[in-house]
């Protein structure tokens, strides 16, 4: 049986709907509307915060979310197992455009590349604020997210650690981004742990700054900027660091 998790949609379209709602008044109203109808057997309601709830198996997700939980909900979906087939979600317009932004676009950011690493994302339609009552202050968009199955063979925590550093100042060169004291302290700590685990002796005159700069130079990434780098660029950069024993998580 196909099971869908849904928010604010007619349930007669589906074999079964699992809805998640935090407002008990809306839950009561929903049960009132479907009781004593054939639709009642198709509906299961989870009462609570969707970000804190354990989602059941589902193959489709349709949601009109509170916009303030957009980012954590997207990554909750993308890290959900087993894989779902597709999600159709409405977001604030700017957030939606960040999801689909490409290298070189003004809105291209960490959210863009992290989402696109794990999924295919398409912008489906714009939704004007006059379609809501009362009208909100922002425009909206509907996007479709289809997770990549199987996912890329990448440790996501490692990946996100690298991407986070690169996009702190996405217009800076990578050479400049990695000269941050906080970044170098973190990477040196991780490198020393790696060496300890693998019985690698660290020279007394070791410099993490010099090691990082050499890696960037050898990979020809010194003058590159995150704003123009695609997924393949970051995969190559992550591999280059990992081969030299530098990790980001």
TrEMBL record:
Keywords recorded for this protein, A-Z: Methyltransferase, RNA-binding, rRNA processing, S-adenosyl-L-methionine, Transferase
E.C. numbers: 2.1.1.-
Residue ranges occupied by any Ribosomal RNA adenine methylase transferase N-terminal domain in the UniProt entry: 5-149
Positions that bind S-adenosyl-L-methionine: 1, 21, 49, 64
Enzymatic class: transferase
Database matches in PROSITE patterns: SAM_RNA_A_N6_MT
Superkingdom per UniProt: Eukaryota
Recorded catalytic activity of this chain's protein: adenosine(1779)/adenosine(1780) in 18S rRNA + 4 S-adenosyl-L-methionine = N(6)-dimethyladenosine(1779)/N(6)-dimethyladenosine(1780) in 18S rRNA + 4 S-adenosyl-L-homocysteine + 4 H(+)
Assembly description: Part of the small subunit (SSU) processome, composed of more than 70 proteins and the RNA chaperone small nucleolar RNA (snoRNA) U3.
Name of the protein described by the UniProt record: rRNA adenine N(6)-methyltransferase
Organism this protein belongs to: Engystomops pustulosus (Tungara frog)
């Amino acid at each position: 049986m196909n099971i869908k998790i849904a928010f604010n949609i007619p349930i007669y379209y589906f074999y079964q709907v699992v809805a998640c709602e935090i407002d008990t008044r809306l839950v009561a109203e929903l049960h009132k509307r479907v009781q004593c109808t054939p639709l009642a057997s198709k509906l299961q309601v989870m009462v609570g915060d969707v970000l804190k709830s354990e989602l059941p198996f589902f193959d489709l997700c349709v949601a009109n979310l509170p916009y303030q939980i957009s980012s954590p909900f997207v990554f909750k979906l993308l890290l959900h197992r087993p894989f779902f087939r597709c999600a159709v979600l409405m977001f604030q317009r700017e957030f939606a455009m960040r999801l689909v932004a490409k290298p070189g676009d003004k809105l291209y950011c960490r959210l863009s590349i992290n989402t696109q690493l794990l999924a295919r994302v398409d912008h489906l339609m714009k939704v004007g604020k006059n379609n809501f009552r009362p009208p909100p202050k922002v425009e909206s968009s509907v996007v479709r997210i289809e997770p990549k199955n199987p996912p890329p063979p990448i440790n996501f925590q490692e990946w996100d650690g690298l991407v986070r550093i690169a996009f702190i100042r996405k217009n800076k060169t990578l050479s400049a981004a990695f000269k941050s004291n906080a970044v170098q302290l973190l990477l040196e700590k991780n490198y020393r742990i790696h060496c300890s685990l693998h019985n690698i002796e660290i020279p007394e005159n070791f410099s993490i700054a010099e090691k990082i700069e050499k890696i960037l130079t050898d990979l020809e990434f010194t003058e590159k900027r995150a704003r123009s780098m695609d997924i393949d660029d970051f995969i190559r950069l992550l591999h280059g660091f990992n081969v030299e024993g530098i990790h980001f998580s």
